[in-house]
Design a protein that fits this description.
Layout: E1 3-9, H1 13-23, E2 28-35, H2 42-56, E3 63-66, H3 80-83, H4 115-125, E4 130-134, H5 139-152, E5 157-161, H6 177-181, H7 183-190, E6 196-199, H8 201-204, E7 208-210, H9 211-221, H10 224-244, E8 248-250, H11 252-261, E9 266-271, E10 273-275, E11 286-288, E12 303-309, H12 311-322
Parallel strand pairs: 1-2, 1-4, 2-3, 4-5, 5-6, 6-12
Antiparallel strand pairs: 7-8, 9-12, 10-11
Helix pairs in contact: 1-2, 1-11, 4-5, 5-7, 9-10
Length: 327
């Protein structure tokens, strides 16, 4: 049976690749894509999600919903220095031989529902069947909890790409980007009692698609999606090479989708995870209780945290789904 999923996202290059992976995976039935402020402002995130849907042209087409335009309690913080001003590598700079734009503006639906509203509506339609995969800040889920916690508890599972447990952050020394953008929302989610599977930097930074692999995959695909793969990743590749000396991109968000497809690719540990909300150098930090003491002396676990990953298995899956027959 297909797993019904909602993808909550702030596209973002790796978000876009995660959406593509989900739509190419027969194990998943993507019921909806909900957007949130994060890597880019909400309106741009919504346009980016629609652009990916236009490229993929899935049938049936998932519902597109628009969510929170800002975090619960703080000013927006974005990552356009990594992903480009449009979040997808500045696609406006690419032209066809005749001078026309390679990527036309996505056509948004005339009516776009609110994200929290749609999540709750789908839960009433498919109670205990839906997996929510969050690829951005957790604002939409936090708002859904505040609106109707009873129905949100009917989620089958929440797979969260976010945080860092045994590794430093990627936006501050303490914090990972998705949690840092809205730590208040993240804390509401982690204290909600929802069935959480956390996919943190500990595992996502072990799945790196090298620059040469990207270009080879794009050539082998030979499709508009392959061209998009090459074009959209170029800014992120340059950024990571400049700041980390890495000739590749981390597949943070695609791995979260991979965990929904094939859970056995990661090994999880039940842990109690909390989020620092106070301002200061540790704001947005995800703190897990890793003390070597008896379990009954700790707070009960509230998340299954992925701390190990079969990186090669995931990379094979990612390449094969985007380009069947690739190695």
């Amino acid at each position: 049976m297909q797993k019904r999923v909602i993808i909550d996202t702030d596209p973002g290059v790796d978000d876009a690749l995660a959406i593509a992976l989900a739509l190419r995976s027969p194990e998943l039935k993507v019921e909806a894509i909900t957007t949130v402020n994060g890597n880019v402002p909400l309106e741009q995130a919504t346009k980016n999600a629609a652009l990916v849907l236009d490229l993929m042209n899935p049938e049936p087409r998932p519902i597109l919903a628009r969510g929170a335009a800002r975090p619960l309690k703080r000013r927006p913080f974005r990552a356009q220095s990594v992903h480009g001003s449009d979040g997808l590598g500045d696609l406006d700079r690419f032209r066809n031989p005749d001078g026309s734009r390679r990527y036309a503006d996505a056509q948004l639906p005339e009516h776009i529902p609110g994200a929290a509203e749609l999540i709750l509506d789908l839960l009433k339609r498919y109670p205990d069947e839906l997996t929510l995969i969050t690829l951005g800040p957790l604002t939409n889920l936090a708002e859904a909890i505040a609106t109707d916690e009873k129905h949100v508890k009917r989620l089958r599972e929440v797979i969260i790409m976010g945080g860092g447990i045994r590794v430093p952050g990627n936006i501050t020394p303490a914090a990972e980007f998705n949690i840092f953008v809205d730590p208040y929302a993240a804390r509401r989610v982690f204290t909600s009692g929802l069935p959480i599977k956390l996919v943190p930097l500990d595992v996502t930074e072990k799945v790196c698609l090298q620059s040469g692999e990207i270009q080879a995959l794009a050539r082998e695909m030979g499709t508009p999606l392959g061209t998009f793969l090459s074009d959209s990743t170029s800014k992120a590749l340059a950024h990571l090479h400049q700041i980390r000396g890495i000739a590749g991109i981390y597949l943070h968000d695609p791995l979260a989708v991979g965990v929904a497809i094939r859970p056995s690719m990661v090994k999880t540990t039940p842990l109690h995870v909390d989020v620092e909300t106070r301002s200061g150098i540790t704001q947005g930090m995800t703190l897990a209780d890793l003390r070597a003491i008896r379990d009954d002396l700790k707070q009960p676990s509230n998340a299954h945290v992925a701390l190990e990953v079969d990186a090669q298995e995931f990379l094979r899956l990612f390449k094969e789904r985007l380009c069947p027959g690739s190695s």
